Amino acid sequence: MAIDNEPLEEENFAEMFEASLKEQESNRITEGEIVEIQAEDNRALVGVGDKLEGILSLDELRDENGELAFKVGDKITVMVTGHYNERPKISYKKVLEQKKTLDFIQANKENFEDLIIEGTITKKNRGGYIVEADDVSFFMPRSLAAFKDNEDVVGRKIKAQVVKIDDDENTIVVSRRKLFNEERKRKKEIIDALMQEDVIVEGTIKKITSYGMFVDVGGVDGLVHYNEISYKGPVNPSKLYKEGDVVTVKAISYDKDKRHLSLSIKAVQPDPWAEVEDELDEGDTITVTVSNVEAYGVFVDLGNDIEGFLHISEITWDKNVKNPADYLSVGQEIDVEVIEINPKTHKLRVSLKRLLPKPFDEFVKNFHEGDIVDGTVTSLTDFGAFVRIGGVEGLLHNQDASWEKNVKCKDFLKVGDEVKVKIAKINKEEQKISLNSKALQESPIDKFATTHKVNQVVHGKIRDIKDFGIFVQLEDGIDALIRDEDLAPLVKEELQIGSDIEAAIATIDTRRDRIRLSVKKLDYIKNQELMNEINDNESHSLGDLIKDQLQ
Prior knowledge:
With 551 residues, this protein is of the alpha+beta class. It has helices at residues 2-25, 93-108, 176-194, 272-279, 359-366, 409-412, 444-451, 519-536, 542-550; strands at 28-38, 43-47, 53-57, 75-84, 87-91, 116-124, 128-133, 136-141, 157-166, 171-175, 200-208, 212-217, 220-225, 246-255, 260-264, 285-294, 297-301, 307-311, 333-342, 347-351, 372-380, 384-389, 392-397, 418-427, 432-436, 457-465, 469-473, 479-483, 500-509, 514-518.
């Protein structure tokens, strides 16, 4: 068994010894000579001694313009990095990098405590990470990396602090963890200083967002919320500042758990609300400038970093305002009346319409009850129409719009129509105006009265039956009432809507537009006519007449 295994063991030992020699050769720097350039394979063959030719990528020999910086026969210093098919693998770039690393060590080995590098992680090994920055190689032990387990970091750009330079081993050790700790300690000192009372500093705007600005104060970022920019209230920071601007700020709070520093610009400025509270009273008239127009109202600038609000209902006495932009524009100067000051909530409300003449007062001066005027329909409801006259609105009720029964304004009018109306009533206390248009039309009752008289017999149809009587529809749609006491000898319970009926006119009241009928009166008239006929006919005896009636 031993004899059989001996050749194998000698062979394995020889392979191991050869591999050891090759490993010792790795990272060896030597002087070589370019013996051949194989452009089609993008490589050069470089003689490195002992009749060995190493393989070098042409990419390492190109200058900034992509041209080859060497030619066949040129001497070149290379590093042996391994072997491939018995040929040494060599690198010219590694030599340059090693030289830069050595230069870095020589330049900084005496004073590196505060040195911070920014590089890219190019390799991960059992002990840590290789970081390259400006062609200089650094080593970052796993314990100093501050990465999560199994986190893929190769290719990531990082910052780290130099913690050790070994001149003998030509190595530079860096720590990401120490940089974090130093940064945290430094930021804590800055924040502690900022949170002292009355500390005001300058900072540089790094980023502007919709909700505020991030400002760098001594290496620490703080947020200036849009509420903390101006005493006007929330403002759009991009309209006032740009990134890179220097602003004066004051720290107002710090959340240790979230590590969130809040800054304020307005806290540095004098509070203009103190001036407002001292100098303005409700009822004062002030001149302001329109700064913003919204659908619900207008914001006005008082000129001292304070904005007041002019609600849409306070712009004009017109109740049909739909868009404030129809009345005011940005930059326009107007006089307004102060109607509310609240220094605690920093709210100031103003009114424009209170400085304008009240349309109702002007209306009362120019119009009177009984006047016939032209107006414009502004809106229609189930109960009537609102008509604008001289800057105010009056109500034209359905019952005052037409002589026709059950007809509503919206049945024959539309918004924007011009109508002629009579001012029926002006209620000064409630500031209400009642209008009438049917008074300008001929009354059907008046017309009826010209062709009919009391006791005249008329015919019609029963339109409705009520508890107190029945309504009868006569010619031209005119309604007349027969009360229960005037129905005899008819029996109310036997009557039906739509049935024909005959009655005598009891009254025609043109002032109140009413007609009363009576069946009882009709019966009386007929009986009276019969008696007259009896009295006028002396040739017949009473018995004959009675006999004729019985037949």
